[in-house]
Specification:
The complex is a heterodimer of chains A (105) and B (461). Chain A is mostly helical and 105 residues long. Chain A contains four helices and no strands. In chain B, helix 5 packs parallel to helix 7. The chains are: A mainly alpha (105), B alpha/beta (461).
């Protein structure tokens, strides 16, 4: 069992709890950007796709790896671009802005 | 060296978490997304130092094309089309996870079962989840983009067929895991996963689609996490688990705001559980015109605008913002009251209004605006229906009973901008429209708001 996967299971379970506690406190105003941002974050699968594609031998493996890289890159780049566009539009009223930062919001 | 890579991946995971932390407040949200993007860049840079460059002639074009298509689509998409865009990107991620796991298992089988059992099992799970996420997301995209009908597609034995597909997929997976030798069964597993994704999304109607997209988002996160087990990569495990957790919470939040259980969304199809409980409401409808409403608004002290999906469909965000500006110029206090599921996803309406430059401190969530309605002179409901229906509070026999609603009926006067008396998603009549303090302004939301603005200019003239 190659030492098993127990350390990885620990990491997984703890990360799930971090995720729950982080996100359960987000105001609904930000749910759509949040969904889009996390959608971009799971594009981290691109790391796995690069590993597979770079170590691929033979046409089938290369094809699988290249396709995975293509899809994952779209996920990452598109995800961050869309999220940034959404968040760029969140502005306070003119009075609420300013260098000193007022206590509003 | 291995330690340095490990620490860099850990730093990337921390950046993801800090990014999400900053996404919790509007003021820091944009920087949060950039922090997460920096984490991604770090992870990719480190990965680039770790891989061999023999296959770069294939990899680099794939990265270039993927980045160009992703950035182009991301820049050009209209904000009203955001849900299907998220679905599309999500499907890409799910497909990528499935392909990576499929590739790793295939290579293991080719080398005579080289993959250890735990990695093999998580890999098979990834192929299943990734396939479901890919085909399910593409179908959700097709439905929302109106490439095909958005209505639920139901047929006899649908659930049985899905169960059969799941069983076939599990059987194929178990066989691959047990014998480490049947490449054909791995292909069958992938095919079954794709069919299952279609089977799960077919019976879901357009109104419920955001719930499904959120669920598929969570599934893709899990698939990425499972791939982390296959590759022994902690970053994939952490990032995927974070997304899996967030997607699950969002899914439950959305289902709860619609007063529907997840099982109901997945298996029932909108309309099929809505047969009974309409009940006969008494009273009559009071139609009005733009001039009367303009006068009402001009001499009000507090106005709350309640935007719904109808406003988004009519692309009337700009007119709503102009109305806010015109009223504020007259000294009227204007707020926007936003139901959690206004628009098509939680927070979607906020994005649409932000696009029209409505400052976010004028947007009030349901819990904050509901106590205000008692003191509100005019509640202006634009293209929202079920989320304002008092039956959710008063009629235990109503299908929407118990759903959290905006208490617009408690305002002194309610003005409803609406195309017709047609019922909303829930398919029931809204007794609000028969109340004595309710006026109906019929017509397209954009045209009605423009008429209101014009009439407002003439109030003093």
């Amino acid at each position: 069992m190659r030492g098993g996967l127990l350390p990885e299971v620990d990491v997984f379970v703890l990360a799930v709890f971090v995720g729950f506690s982080l996100i359960s406190r987000v105001p609904s105003v930000l749910h759509t950007p949040l969904m889009s941002a996390t959608n971009a974050i799971h594009g981290v699968i691109l790391v796995g796709a690069l590993v597979l594609a770079a170590s691929a031998r033979g046409p089938l493996e290369v094809a699988l790896g290249t396709a995975a890289v293509l899809l994952a890159t779209m996920n990452v780049v598109g995800g961050y671009v869309v999220t940034d566009r959404m968040l760029e539009m969140f502005r306070r009223s003119p009075g609420g802005e300013g260098a000193g930062g007022s206590g509003r919001g | 060296m291995a330690e340095a890579v490990h620490l860099a991946y850990l730093a990337a995971a921390v950046l993801f978490i800090v990014g999400i932390m900053r996404l919790r407040q509007p003021a820091t949200a944009r920087s949060g997304n950039l922090v997460a993007a920096a984490g991604m860049l770090l992870a990719l840079a480190v990965t680039a130092t770790q891989i061999s460059y023999g296959n770069m002639p294939f990899i680099l074009p794939a990265v270039a094309v993927g980045a160009a298509v992703g950035a182009g689509a991301g820049r050009r998409v209209r904000m009203t089309a955001m849900p299907q865009m998220v679905a599309l990107f999500n499907g890409m991620g799910g497909g990528a996870a499935g392909l990576v796991a499929f590739g790793e298992i295939w290579r293991g089988l080719a080398q005579g079962g080289a993959l250890p059992l735990p990695a093999l099992v998580t890999g098979l799970v990834t192929v299943l989840i990734g396939g479901v996420s890919l085909s399910g997301s593409l179908l959700a995209f097709a439905k929302l983009q109106e490439i095909m009908t958005g209505r639920p597609i139901l047929f006899a034995g649908q659930s049985a067929l899905n169960a059969l597909l799941l069983a076939a997929g599990l059987a194929a997976g178990v066989d691959v895991a047990a014998t480490s030798g049947h490449g054909a069964l791995l292909v069958l597993l992938a095919a079954v996963a794709l069919a299952l994704g279609v089977g799960v999304v077919l019976p879901v109607g357009g109104a419920d689609m955001p719930v499904i997209i959120s669920l598929l988002n969570a599934l893709t996160g899990l698939a990425a996490s499972a791939t982390g087990f296959v590759l022994a990569n902690a970053l994939l495990i952490v990032a995927g688990a974070l997304v899996g957790a967030s997607g699950t919470i969002l899914t439950l939040l959305m289902a709860r705001a619609m007063n529907r259980s997840l099982a109901n969304v997945l298996f029932a199809g909108v309309g099929s559980v809505r047969a009974g409980g309409t009940g006969a409401a008494e009273g009559s409808v009071h139609p009005t015109n733009a001039e009367d409403v303009a006068t009402l608004l001009a001499y009000a002290q507090r106005v709350v605008i309640v935007p719904g999906y109808g406003l988004a469909v009519a692309r009337a965000q700009q007119e709503a913002k102009d109305l806010m500006v015109a009223l504020e110029a007259r000294g009227v206090d204007v707020k926007f009251g936003i139901h959690p599921v206004a628009g098509r996803m939680p927070g979607h309406m906020n994005v649409l209004l932000a696009e029209a430059d409505v400052p976010y401190d004028r947007l009030y969530e349901m819990e904050r605006i509901n106590p205000e309605f008692e003191r509100t002179d005019v509640a202006l409901v634009v293209g929202a229906n079920d989320v304002t229906n008092p039956a959710a509070r008063t009629r235990p026999d109503s299908p929407i009973y118990g759903m959290p609603i905006l208490d617009v009926d408690r305002a002194r006067t309610v003005v409803v901008l609406k195309r017709s008396m047609a019922p909303g998603f829930a398919g029931i009549d809204n007794e609000l429209y028969l109340r004595d303090n309710c006026r109906m302004l019929f017509g397209d939301a954009k045209a009605s708001l423009a008429a209101l603005l014009q009439a407002l200019k003439e109030v003093d003239g």
